[in-house]
Amino acid sequence: MSKSFLGSFCLTEFQTSRETYNGLNFSSELLPSLGAKTNNRATKLRRHIVSPFDPRYRAWEMFLILLVVYSAWITPFECAFLAYKQDVLYIFDNIVNGFFAVDIVLTFFVAYLDSHSYLLIDDPKRIAVRYLSSWFAFDVCSTIPFQFINILFTDHNGGLCFNLLSMLRLWRLRRVSSLFARLEKDIRFNYFWTRCVKLISVTMFAVHCAGCFNYMIADRYPDEKRTWIGAVYPHFKHMRLWDKYVTALYWSIVTLTTTGYGDLHAENPREMLFDIFYMLFNLGLTSYLIGNMTNLVVHWTCRTSNFRDTIAAAAEFTKRNQLPPKIQEQMLSHICLNFKTEGLKQQETLNGLPKAIRSSIAHYLFYPIVQNVDLFRGVSQDFLFQLVTEMEAEYYPPRQDVILQNEAPTDAYILVSGSVDFIAKVNGQDQIIGKASTGDMFGEIGILCEKPEPFGVLTTEVCQVLRLDKTTFLNILRANPEDERRVMNNLYQKLKFWRSFDIEGQQDPSLILQNCLDLDPKEDSNYTPDNLCEDISNYSRFMATNELPSEIDANYGQESLHVAVQKGHIEMVRTMLERGDQNHANNGIYDLMITYENGKKQTGATNSGTITSCKKGAYATSSSSIPSTTGEVTRLTKRVTIHINSRKHDNSRKELKKLIILPDSVEELLKIAGQIFGDNDLTKVVNAENAEIDDLSVVRDGDHLFLLPNPCEGIDCHSR
Fold first, then answer.
1. Does residue 364 form part of some domain?
2. Last residue of a domain, one of 501, 522, 552
3. How many domains does the chain divide into?
4. Which PROSITE patterns did the record assign (predicted)?
5. d(CA 239, CA 211)
């Protein structure tokens, strides 16, 4: 313990703040009333008023506690064993009474805490009224020197009356009760041992008082031999003081413990009556002691007991449901780790604090870790601050599943300590496809891509992680568009190392597709244009001859397909897809291709096919909705650019064009064009080669269509 007992309770500074309002002082250490205003100025009470939290007053209280302990022991002892006081003891008792008399006067100048408003009152009148109406009379009676009055009026023969009046000094014990109440609330002292000291003190005081009172009854009984002590020691009054006191304590403790050896017992009605009340008191005291000790012991061992019960319940559950040994081991490991780390968990403590304090604590604990996560590279500090305030710390034992493959994404995790393996099923077997160490993040792919988790996560040692809820994460992203873009760009860079990742199913283009595909192509250093063309050519040759090597089949074809989409080679993507490469074609690549092409068209960029043309009617298999083995296909959305000439007032012509989604029929196309250009005379559709189109199924995505009125017989009419 860093501070001594005296320093902990006497010298501790209590910094308070105050604003005077109608004679009241507001303490920041106390609960203010609703609407009360406080500030950070130091407490300044009225003149001659002492704060109850002043360290000097605390030291004075501790000094009085020592005097109370002395008074509690000496008062019953003097009443029973000392008919005449020695001069030294008499003088010391009066000095003690003098200190308590000073405390009575001092109490009139000590501010007090109002029990209704929880305000510190420093008004002298209110302090005096409160003290006079409460404990003043008892304090005065416990301080009156009755021994001195006894000497003045009875010449040392005051008898039992003055002795009983001296017992009023036991009123001072209320200070000890307040001390123990304060000790029990002070976390610097062990609660168990504080309670034990209190219970032992109560027991010893009861034994001391009972022994003294029982001896006093025997000492004042007319027949010495008909007393509990006189029956054993006929001349007990001539015994040494120490022997008489030990004998009295022996009888008291034997009776208290209900042992009852029978060697010392009541011999007359007075003693019998006292024994009756003493044993009734013992019933209550024993119940109090047993109840408190039982509660302390149960509280001390409840964690272990609850742990054993939880283990037994888990074992019974696994046995009843016939769970495999792996799951059973994970359950028991998780329960054991929770037991070991129960004192380390922070979330229970944080939940009971105000939002601002929780945010400050989370920022201090988690910010240095989160700012080094690759996914959050380049984001703003405000964005990180919003994230860390929503994170929760958790522990996982070794060989524990944190995320299961293909489960619905619910949380993202940042690894604070330990390591984990990324597990995926390959040919029905679990294989390690990657690892993560301190500072890495996992679980974010499923959340940001709105798809099942692409791989499982298994701990290899005891791990501490920061957990971030999916809904909270997405809400923070959407509230910070610039940081959202950076996060998605960082995710794209990460996905380049996971070529088999499927992003199909993402419903919000602004969240991942658009952000990922708006990257500067220069950032992708894995492929140059020449290398890409070479790979695409090789891939087309392999596909045409069905000679793609099996050992590079999955990686080679799939990577070429991904890169072709990222670089905007739409025609090559169609060629590869129409080849029916179901093994290494990414099922979500169709949505990715359309989204990327949309972005390129909207910015005015036009991409020409580099390898081959698309076959009639581009189709793609979607494994997310239709199994690839059924042969069913879903039509791709086609976009075309329509052209029309508009005549100006000076008889010159101006070409108008519009990018639209290709409708299902020529009639619908002419109707849409008429609404767009305001010309209802359009009757013919031709392509760039001046070939008339009667069926829109022959139109490819990205074609240019020319709409002509009836007099025009071809595209050449545009130049007239």
1. yes
2. 501
3. 3
4. ANK_REP_REGION, ANK_REPEAT, CNMP_BINDING_3, KHA
5. 16
Say how far apart CA 58 and CA 537 lie, in whole Å. Answer: 89
For the record, the structure tokens of 218 come out as 């025997």
Q: What is the CA radius of gyration of the chain?
A: 46
C-alpha dihedral over 269, 275, 281, 286, to 10 degrees? -160
SS3 sequence of 86-104: CHHHHHHHHHHHHHHHHHH
How far apart are alpha carbons 149 and 152 in whole angstroms? Answer: 5
Give me the pLDDT at residue 81, please.
87
List the CATH number of the domain containing 673: 3.10.20.90
Alpha-carbon span 415 to 462, nearest angstrom: 11
Per-residue pLDDT tens for 127-145? 999 999 988 999 999 898 8
pLDDT of 415 above 90: yes
Phi then psi for residue 157, to 5 deg, are -125, 45
CA–CA separation, 230 and 234 (whole Å): 4
Query: Is the pLDDT assigned to residue 43 strictly greater than 60?
Result: no
Please indicate whether residue 565 or residue 431 has the higher confidence score (pLDDT). 431
Q: Are 614 and 571 in contact (CB under 8 A)?
A: yes
272 shares a domain with 151: yes
Is the same domain home to 358 and 271? no
Considering the domain boundaries, does residue 574 fall inside one?
A: no
* 239 secondary structure, DSSP code: S
User: Are residues 225 and 370 both part of a single domain?
Assistant: no
**Are residues 600 and 519 in contact, defined by beta-carbon separation less than 8 angstroms?**
no
Strands 639-647 and 704-709: parallel
Domain that holds residue 275: 51-280
Dist CA 542 CA 546 (whole Å) = 5
239, 364: one domain: no
Q: How far apart are CA 17 and CA 249, in angstroms?
A: 52
Q: Which of 468, 461, 410, 462 is nearest to 441 (CA)?
A: 468
Round to whole Å and give the CA distance between 412 and 470: 7
**Which of 258, 280, 302 corresponds to the end of one domain?**
280
